[in-house]
Amino acid sequence: MIEDKNQQRTSLENLGEFGLIEHLTKNFDIKHKSTIKSIGDDAAVLEFKTNQIVVTTDLLIENVHFDLSYVPLKHLGYKAVVVNLSDVYAMNANATQITVSIAVSNRFPLEALEDLYAGIEAAAKIYNIDVIGGDTTSSTTGLIISVTAIGAVDEKNVVLRSGAKANDLVVVTGDIGASYMGLQVLEREKEVFKVNPQNQPDLSMYSYIIERQLKPEARKDVIELLKSLDVKPTSMIDISDGLSSEIIHLCKNSDVGVELYENKIPLDPQVISTCEEFNIDSTTIALNGGEDYELLMTISQEDFPKIKGNPNLTVIGYITEKSRGMHLITRGEQAIPIIAKGWNAMKNEV
Amino acid sequence: MIEDKNQQRTSLENLGEFGLIEHLTKNFDIKHKSTIKSIGDDAAVLEFKTNQIVVTTDLLIENVHFDLSYVPLKHLGYKAVVVNLSDVYAMNANATQITVSIAVSNRFPLEALEDLYAGIEAAAKIYNIDVIGGDTTSSTTGLIISVTAIGAVDEKNVVLRSGAKANDLVVVTGDIGASYMGLQVLEREKEVFKVNPQNQPDLSMYSYIIERQLKPEARKDVIELLKSLDVKPTSMIDISDGLSSEIIHLCKNSDVGVELYENKIPLDPQVISTCEEFNIDSTTIALNGGEDYELLMTISQEDFPKIKGNPNLTVIGYITEKSRGMHLITRGEQAIPIIAKGWNAMKNEV
């Protein structure tokens, strides 16, 4: 729908597993000294100077996590990497290596996998990580991508979900809700396309929110920014499931309560206008939209002067004693309990 | 077919992702000091005393890698762990942690996943590894399992595929070909079952080969044995795709040739008798059967006295200069070129 470039189709069947891995990863260079041995043995060998490492993994399934009728494969490869790196940065660690496993059915030609790996390579280059291994296999149905990401961190710098204390400030990076609204636009255009395949929609007024959905970025820059500002968050999590779901994780793990202010939640103008167009409340989207891959953190009040006025960091509330519960203070100054919904739940509803 | 215990069926839909992970992993204990933070944050945190780690990953897809009509889920969980640990041991490393991601369709009740995780837990206990993370998601069709395994190793002990030298001895652990023949028996019984579901086959004469297929073990014991014998192999690989495919990997990576002796290849009597019954050549099965998860290694000739007579280790040939090529010397003393086939290729043929 968005792009159609099936000029050439080379069947995977004649390549075999070993030929395929070699072919797809032949351009991947090694950037880190910590990568001693990459693809090509029973396992990769790594060696770290820092004393701790972090490990995270995600599984992406066609028609559950992505719809190839509007997600270009190159974007998908990029996003599959980024969503994992986001978890590494949420530990305040430096992402260094990933493994990528894919299962594909025979309906994918080699050129499709080359597009997918071009996206993986682009992300590896931009985020400065090595692709050190993986598995390539056949699937009876669609495309499956499994990524495991590894990062390095000094013990004293690790930030868990469990460190928030009463009176800490709640800080969110960037703006939220855009990815979910981008998805709504893409889903609508897919329906239009079904009725009229000749239709060439003008999506320029949605460019920001569609890019947030199709090609999200992980906040590596924020980890570097915090370091340069000499701010170590007391707790941190990445926003993959929506602000409400993530703040509940932080509060439960830290055994605290929270007050968030509706009027402080950073929204892009395109989110607001698209919410109006779709007749959806933008705060609901910000709370439950998900897939923003921004960071949600708490910082000590004494660090506030260091972040004050920084356009990447917005204070949206503060941590309370657990007994106070978890509330959103609306523009009308009402305190509404925060409930976990998450975008998966919304998907079934909307 | 082998077991049918669908007494209770709890739907996954009401549990949600977070509830499901918590429920399935609640019995998993942490055994290693290197596991600083396990399941429950954006990423796991690990800290190693040894200076290098190894990382490997595998993706298992229903109806490609396993058939639930005869593979009990508990065995499948066990095997999914073991096949990854085998790659860690093939680096001469000590397996310490795994992540496990699964995607399941709604046709699986909670009880099925509990069986799967019981197998994962059993393997984690026997092999002394920590389950430190993973992802649980829905699938539009079958069951998908992605495991990443991590091991620790001192730099001086790492064994790659690339270290074999001319005159080194080629050594294989245990016996090979059994897993593939076990699969043949199970496939045959599946066809019988389709015709007559009331049939209760007596599979006791195939017990060894069926167990090798359904519940293989990784050779952790061999890694410990080699250490106690003070033998460091010059190269090593695990046998997942068949002896011929693996020896070609070792030779290509080490830039050497090889001569293997047909009459030295260790076969279990049950493999020989079942091959006769199926009218298949047992050497063909040993060379191309796969899924044995034994180790194939090369050792320096001066280490031969240390391993001589050990029932776990069989010398099956020796490494030559590359120019000599790769050959199997048959019982009739003919030199036949070794060709990579691998069990996936066989699967399409047989």
UniProtKB/TrEMBL annotation, chains A, B:
Boundaries of every PurM-like N-terminal domain copy: 40-153
EC numbers, comma separated: 2.7.4.16
Residues bound to Mg(2+) 2: D58, D87
Keyword vocabulary terms for this entry: ATP-binding, Kinase, Magnesium, Metal-binding, Nucleotide-binding, Thiamine biosynthesis, Transferase
Residues binding Mg(2+) 1, per UniProt: T57, D58, D135
SUPFAM superfamilies, A to Z: PurM C-terminal domain-like (SSF56042), PurM N-terminal domain-like (SSF55326)
First-level EC class: transferase
Residues where ATP binds: Y117, G134, D135, R161, S240
Residues annotated as binding Mg(2+) 4: D42, T56, D87
Pathway note: Cofactor biosynthesis; thiamine diphosphate biosynthesis; thiamine diphosphate from thiamine phosphate: step 1/1
Annotated catalysed reactions: thiamine phosphate + ATP = thiamine diphosphate + ADP
Positions contributing to Mg(2+) 5 binding: D241
Binding site for substrate: H65, E291, W343
Record keyword Kinase present: yes
Pfam families: AIRS (PF00586)
GO molecular function: thiamine-phosphate kinase activity
Binding of Mg(2+) 3, residues: D42, D87, D238
Further comment: Reaction mechanism of ThiL seems to utilize a direct, inline transfer of the gamma-phosphate of ATP to TMP rather than a phosphorylated enzyme intermediate.
Protein family according to the UniProt entry: Belongs to the thiamine-monophosphate kinase family.
Role this protein plays: Catalyzes the ATP-dependent phosphorylation of thiamine-monophosphate (TMP) to form thiamine-pyrophosphate (TPP), the active form of vitamin B1.
NCBIfam families reported for this sequence: thiL
Protein name: Thiamine-monophosphate kinase
Lineage: Bacteria, Pseudomonadati, Bacteroidota, Flavobacteriia, Flavobacteriales
Gene that specifies this protein: thiL
